[in-house]
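Entry type: protein chain
Record version: 2
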Amino acid sequence: MDFTHFDNKGNARMVDVSEKEITHRIAVAEGTIGVSREVMDAITGHTVKKGDVLTVAQVAGIMGTKKTSELIPMCHPLSLTNVTLQFEVDEEGCEIKAICTAKTDGKTGVEMEALTGVSTALLTIYDMCKAIDKRMVIRNIHLVEKSGGKSGEFRF
């Protein structure tokens, strides 16, 4: 398999997508943050001093998808047609899962945008709760599925 982000001399380059077909593309990514009982109680009880953690993290994650090309070298700026960011809160297990779905009609995929959305949302939870407990653990950020484009369907 050839690496598409390098030229024949090994120099980094942006992939030329000018000849690719425009297709409807969707990517879903997820990841989790493990928190202490104290942090979970503060989040679910809406007592975190910085505000409503999950609402702020949701907005941050969506905003993160829009900034992906500014953060990841050689990543194409995309016109996103829709982004959703949801949370599944496991109060008993003290975990929060972030799930980001990104959509576009374009010549390149939205996997990086979905992954960036999840990462940004989880980092925001960490930032808003670190005064309570810094031992939170972000883990298992990965692409769950994608569709569209030349490579077609993918499911983890």
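Comment: The CA atoms of residues 22 and 107 lie 5 Å apart.
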